[in-house]
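User: Please fill in residues for this 590-position structure.
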């Protein structure tokens, strides 16, 4: 790399070299007009861009990356091709060094709280770029920088991303062997490869050692793919067991063995709870009773009158009250982990009345949270606590309170989704209802009740569906009377204004086929369905539905599906959830 000191790039004059790396060298530069603006300029090796087409692609990818805005991602100010053919990127200068510098400073060891804060911020940045369909590919302590406020900042994700896009032929592709996932050595990097690298960094932060060491890249790749790391508690005996479990799960050899995403890994690091079990839809309910694990119920002495700013236990700070159901003695709060301020949760605060069977309620809660385990379509329960003690609320005497802390995610319920979009495109609507089918099928397998309404399901920013109204959360939100239809448990509670979601023709009972059909009708039209939709009803409200021609007839598959699902004759509806799933899949394929 040629000497850059004194060269002018745009309005910036290069003043000193900061470091050199795999892709090039980083320099400090000052604005030639604005005296108080200092930046970092990274010059990449010219041989990465072999043609004008590569140069154009580099600029195109850089423009996409410049649009990414996140407080824990190093922003890109400008890019270009220097007159000597070297591409460059002008970035904000993170003046407080890198995580590698802090690891090398043995005189000032990082505390557990500091480590968790760093991992939380970097995890948040990774989750953001993964949502934008970008893989970092070269996560390591050298690429984690610190700004003036001490925040951890993710850097160089754009470099690795653009170089991978340009198909540069490096040994094993972009990445640093000490932090590369097994599949990345085979040039199969994915979002979970970044999770693996973050697990390696967490291992090094908590133990002071890298999980693997070797003399060459081949030996290092072999260790990552074939050997188990020394358990962190062997190197640091006082390390919490839940932190060790979280790190080793993130570093699983197979991607299926890791967390669903980086956010789940950070949550597992932050709060002690039993490792969740992912439940297969094919497992019988009999098997589940003996194999599923979940959070235990902890006895605590937390207060029974809550307010924003209060801290419960060792780490949960109350941020705000979201909703209160006074007559049900149930309040929902948003809370955060003070050790990792960017990690937030939902907390259900529930009072148990003196007339209730306290032991029976506790047994029910314990059974249901253990049955829930971890399933992607149901928000994960992080921690369950109870506090005994008499207190008065709304003229009633209560004997016990429960605090259920569960996963918080960004999303809109079905009513809000339609309010924002008017209607869903057909493929998205079918996919949403297919996911609803999978979740309800799972609830049936593990034998927990659920409630279906426009507010029961939430759709995340990634179009993933989560069921909110289920198990203990039904009891706490509605007065309900469980019944059974063909082995499916459900609840007769009705949200005001949404009675159309139910079929009252058969003694006030609810049919799963009918409710899912009503859901699909609502998503496709943005309107409440008639009790008995007829041919042409959907097409008159949504002219964009797919039509097929068969035997001189015009057929709308999705309309036929809704009519069958909501048929007045219950015997002519879909006989079970699987039958409806098959029909939905057919609509997608045709």
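Assistant: Residues filled in for all 590 positions:
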């Amino acid at each position: 790399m040629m000497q850059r000191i004194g060269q002018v790039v745009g309005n910036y004059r290069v003043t000193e070299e900061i470091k050199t790396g795999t892709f090039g060298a980083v320099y400090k530069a000052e604005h030639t007009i604005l005296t108080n603006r200092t930046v970092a300029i990274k010059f990449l090796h010219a041989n990465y861009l072999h043609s004008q087409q590569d140069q154009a692609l580099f600029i195109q990818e850089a423009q996409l990356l410049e649009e990414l805005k996140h407080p824990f991602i190093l922003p890109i100010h400008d890019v270009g091709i220097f007159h000597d053919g070297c591409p460059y990127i002008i970035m904000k200068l993170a003046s407080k060094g890198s995580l590698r510098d802090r690891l090398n400073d043995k005189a000032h060891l990082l505390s557990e709280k500091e480590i968790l804060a760093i991992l939380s911020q970097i995890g948040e940045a990774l989750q953001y770029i993964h949502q934008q369909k970008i893989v970092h590919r070269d996560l390591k302590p050298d690429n984690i920088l610190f700004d003036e406020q001490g925040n951890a900042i993710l850097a160089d994700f754009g470099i690795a991303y653009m170089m991978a896009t340009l198909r540069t032929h490096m040994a094993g592709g972009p990445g640093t062997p000490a932090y590369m996932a097994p599949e990345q050595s085979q040039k199969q990097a994915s979002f979970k490869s970044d999770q693996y690298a973050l697990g390696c960094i967490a291992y090094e932060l908590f133990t002071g050692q890298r999980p693997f060491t070797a003399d060459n890249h081949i030996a290092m790749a072999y260790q990552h793919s074939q050997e188990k790391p020394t358990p962190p508690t062997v190197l640091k005996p006082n390390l919490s067991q839940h932190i060790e479990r979280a790190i080793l799960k993130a570093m699983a050899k197979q991607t299926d063995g890791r967390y669903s995403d980086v956010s789940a890994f950070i949550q597992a690091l932050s709060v002690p709870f039993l490792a969740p079990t992912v439940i297969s839809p094919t497992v019988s309910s009999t098997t589940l009773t003996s194999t599923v694990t979940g959070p235990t119920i902890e006895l605590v002495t937390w207060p029974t009158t809550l307010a924003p700013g209060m801290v419960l236990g060792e780490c949960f700070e109350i941020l705000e009250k979201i909703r209160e159901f006074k007559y049900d003695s149930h309040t929902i709060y948003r809370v955060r982990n003070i050790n990792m301020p960017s990690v937030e949760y939902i907390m259900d605060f529930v009072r148990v009345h003196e007339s209730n069977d306290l032991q029976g309620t506790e047994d029910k809660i314990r059974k249901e949270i253990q049955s829930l385990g971890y399933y992607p379509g149901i928000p994960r329960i992080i921690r369950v606590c109870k506090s005994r003690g008499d207190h008065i609320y709304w003229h009633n005497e209560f004997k016990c309170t429960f605090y259920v802390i569960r996963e918080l995610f960004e999303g809109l319920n079905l009513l809000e989704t339609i309010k924002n979009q008017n209607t869903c495109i057909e493929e998205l609507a079918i996919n949403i209802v297919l996911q609803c089918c999978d979740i309800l099928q799972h609830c049936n397998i593990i034998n927990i009740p659920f409630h279906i309404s426009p507010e029961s399901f939430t759709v995340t920013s990634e179009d993933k569906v989560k069921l909110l109204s289920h198990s203990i959360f039904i009891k706490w939100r509605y007065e309900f009377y469980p019944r059974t239809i063909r082995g499916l448990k459900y609840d007769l509670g009705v949200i005001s204004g949404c009675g159309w979601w139910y079929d009252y023709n058969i003694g006030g009972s609810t049919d799963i086929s009918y409710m899912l059909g009503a859901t699909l009708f609502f998503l496709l039209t943005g309107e409440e369905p008639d009790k008995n939709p007829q041919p042409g009803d959907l097409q008159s409200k949504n002219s964009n539905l797919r039509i097929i021609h068969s035997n001189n007839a015009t057929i709308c598959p999705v309309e036929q599906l809704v009519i069958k699902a909501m048929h007045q004759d219950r015997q002519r509806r879909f006989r079970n959830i699987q039958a409806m799933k098959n029909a939905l899949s057919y609509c997608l394929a045709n």
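For context: The longest strand covers residues 340-353.
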